[in-house]
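Blinded run. Sample ID left blank on purpose so nobody reads anything into the name before looking at the predicted structure. Input follows.
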Amino acid sequence: MSNEQPDETPAGRLRTQLLAAFDQFEQECEVEQCQYEAAESSGLARLAEEYARATTAKARAALAERIGPSLSLTEAGLIRRTAKAIEPALPGMIVEARIDGGSAADIATELGMTASYVHRVVRSNPWAAAWTLCRATGDDSWEVVESGTLDTTEPAGSVADQILADRLDVALARAGARVCVWRTGEEDDPDAIRATREYDGDAMYDH
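Blinded prediction complete.
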């Protein structure tokens, strides 16, 4: 059994989502009984890696010219079907990666697209953030002071920073405050918190 820990970075979670989409396609695909092992053994995984490294139009054209003739019709069909199967899920993957703090440049690199396209997807798909603002009550316990929801295109961490900055008053600063942000619908799961920001009780107010 592998003890390897999952990659919890935005890029790592994006890769996991892509693999999940590929697995779903693989399960549903009956044509040619396509399997991921077949794709790997035929060099398609290596082709994807080489394409990611070929960051210019000239380099990608050279890659296509070199690799293209070596692909069979079945392999070319597998590539196109896989791309089309994943394509409808890409906007959701982009938004998820953005919520978790991924930059447009990093997301674009992972998906082999332009940062400007990622920006357009993010702007067109605001996500609903649910948040709570809590006051420290001692013994590592917290009391909810305020909660709300908002639609945003910012990462969850930026949302938490802004809420804390806007609502931190003298009383909260003295006691200590915490902001937690979820994606709406996930608020009941403490493990689904997308961002947390805290302000320790400030001694400057203890007089």
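Unblinding after everyone has recorded impressions. The chain has a mean pLDDT of 81.
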